[in-house]
Amino acid sequence: MVLKLYCPQNVTASNGIVALVLAEKQIPFEFVQVDLASQQHKTPDFVAMQPFGQVPVIDDDGFILYESRAVCRYLAEKYPDQGPKLVPAGLKEKARFEQAASVELAHLYPAVLKVAAEVSAKQRQGLPVDQTVIDACLAEFPAKFDVYEGILGRHRYLAGEELTLVDLFHLFYAQLLVGAEIMTRESRPNVTRWWKELISQPAWVKLKEEGIKGTVN
């Protein structure tokens, strides 16, 4: 049975990262579109798979998994010899990978969640977004990327010399950070080099242009 990916077609945050890993690892999958506008993700059938009523979800021959970071780790470790490894195998290399993953989740993601909460809450209420809230959240990023500048000055990617899921996880923030022009400042050439490489990956560019499409029906 071919793997199924449940999510909207547009490449937004978590949906896009899972689709990117599927593309990079050349994993065949069936795309099952979930219509968020009609609350399809809140139906009993969907909540039976994802109890929080969120996307994306995968069904790998009856094995149901949600939470995009967990899904990406599962795919990378199930198919280690297809495409880039994305998760290191060595003990110390994997420890460094997990360290970088913890940094992303603990230091960057909370600020993004604040922005998302402000935007989604106001949209639901039909109210204008408070730009001062967004600006305050974005103000947290420069100091964090000053630290990244040092890390990326020592090795090509966040967890070492090879691209890993940790790097790809930062594409969660692509639209937000590109719009705010945080990632391409002259004062952080290593961050700029790393970021430009991430967003110019052929598989990512294709996803952004075409949306998420399954490879099998």
UniProtKB/TrEMBL annotation:
Residues 90-217 form the GST C-terminal domain. It catalyses: RX + glutathione = an S-substituted glutathione + a halide anion + H(+). The keyword Zinc does not apply. Signal peptide: none annotated. It comes from the Eukaryota. GO terms for cellular component: cytoplasm. One of its GO terms (biological process) is glutathione metabolic process. PROSITE patterns: GST_CTER, GST_NTER. It is an enzyme of class 2 (transferase). Residues 1-83 form the GST N-terminal domain. Keywords: Transferase. Its EC number is 2.5.1.18. SUPFAM superfamilies: GST C-terminal domain-like, Thioredoxin-like. InterPro entries: Glutathione-S-Trfase_C-like, Glutathione-S-Trfase_C_sf, Glutathione_S-Trfase, Glutathione_S-Trfase_N, GST_C, Thioredoxin-like_sf. GO terms for molecular function: glutathione binding; glutathione transferase activity. PANTHER family: GLUTATHIONE S-TRANSFERASE RHO. Belongs to the GST superfamily. This is glutathione transferase.
